[in-house]
Design goal:
Elements (H helix, E strand, L loop, with lengths): L9 E5 L9 E5 H4 L5 E8 L10 E2 L4 E7 L2 E5 L2 E5 L4 E4 L7 E4 L6 E8 L3 E6 L4 E6 L4 E5 L16
Antiparallel strand pairs: 1-2, 2-3, 3-10, 4-11, 5-8, 5-10, 6-7, 6-9, 11-12, 12-13
Amino acid sequence: MPLFPPDRIKTDASDGAGNPCGPYRALLLSDTGGLTQFGAFIEILPPGSRSSIKHWHTAEDEMVYMLEGEVLLHEGDRATPMRPGDTATFRAGDPVGHCLENAGEAEARYLVIGTRSPADSVTYPDHDRVLHLDRRGGARRWTDHAGQPAQSPYLPETD
């Protein structure tokens, strides 16, 4: 059984520059162990940041377990506080966009676990965007809801 002490865990981070969601850090638990069937990571969200733009997956389940701090869970038009011990689950194909927002004054930490389907479409309902993923070949393609090529909503608008 591979054991990975904290100093060997792969990480990801953004300082927030050019990212509409703000800065974040992530401890990539499943990637560190080379797992391919599901993803698991701990995201650390500073005050004022969001986990993502509101989205939903056609082929992947997601689950969030709150570890420290507090966030707002945005689902459709609702915002619900999540505190340590709370769990939120998002079934594949449920067309309700979701994301987390740290509206508090302290850092928040939560565990995210989700399936890794060979192919998935991620819909961003508030931005008229769909991300088409093919993990078998590594393809990532953005379209609008009508299927026309489009820019990622995470990039600044261009003229």
